[in-house]
Amino acid sequence: MTKKLTRREKYALYAASGIICLFIIMQFIVLPVFYKQDRLKRSLKVKTEILQHMITLKAEHDAIIQRTDLSKGHFENREKGFTLFSFLDKLSGKAGIKDHITYMKPSTTVQKNSPYKTSRVEMKLRGLTLQQLTVYLHMVETSKNMVNVKRLSISKTGKPEGFIDAVLQVETSEI
Fold first, then answer.
1. Which helix (H) or strand (E) holds 75?
2. Residue 82: helix, strand or coil by DSSP?
3. What is the three-class DSSP state of 170?
4. Domain of 37?
5. Contact 147, 90 (CB under 8 A)
6. pLDDT digits over 18-35, tens only?
7. Cross-strand bridge partners of residue 152
8. CA angle 130-134-135, nearest 5°?
9. What is the CATH number of the domain that holds 152?
10. Of 84, 46, 42, whose CA–CA distance to 172 is shortest?
11. Tell me: the pLDDT tens digits for 66-80?
């Protein structure tokens, strides 16, 4: 068949064959390589972002573990038989406000799926100065027994100027 073609037609046929071969090579060899490189670059970028997120989560996890260990240490350092009620009673004696206590209401809440329970004491203090209350609150908050003031309500009294009434709720976790 190529014998009957003229020279010009043969060149045109060779050129068309070359273009078709070049198209096939580009379509099935070269372009897939470039597409694969693009996919690999995108995949690498996504996996790098995931790794950064995992590193952040690991740092947060380590911080939580460290705080947990610190809390366990504080629990272990508490005196045996620690109760929030007796602790607050002792502190009020040290702060000199025991005479101002109207009532102390203890309560305990067991936390679901946890060996810990939350112990709370609500206290009402009458006729004390702001300085006395501040000293007492400082003693409560800075103790090593992991006790904190959850709620505090202060109101003026009808007594001489400078005296207040306070209702506070103190809580801690216990094993």
1. helix 31-77
2. coil
3. strand
4. 2-75
5. no
6. 999 988 888 888 888 888
7. 168
8. 120
9. 3.30.70.60
10. 84
11. 988 887 787 777 778
Q: Are residues 69 and 119 located together in one domain of the fold? A: no
Of 88, 113, 115, the closest CA to residue 101 belongs to 88
Q: If you count them, how many residues does the chain have?
A: 175
Token pair of 125 as six digits: 């203090």
Q: Report residue 125: phi and psi, to 5°.
A: -115, 135
Last residue of a domain, one of 48, 75, 102: 75
Domain boundary among 55, 75, 95: 75
- Written as one string, the DSSP assignment of 92-125 is HHHHT-GGGEEEEEEEEEEPTTSS-EEEEEEEEE
Phi, psi values for residue 46, rounded to 5°: -65, -45
Q: Model confidence over 100-125: pLDDT tens digits? A: 899 999 998 887 877 778 899 999 99
The pTM of this model reads 0.62
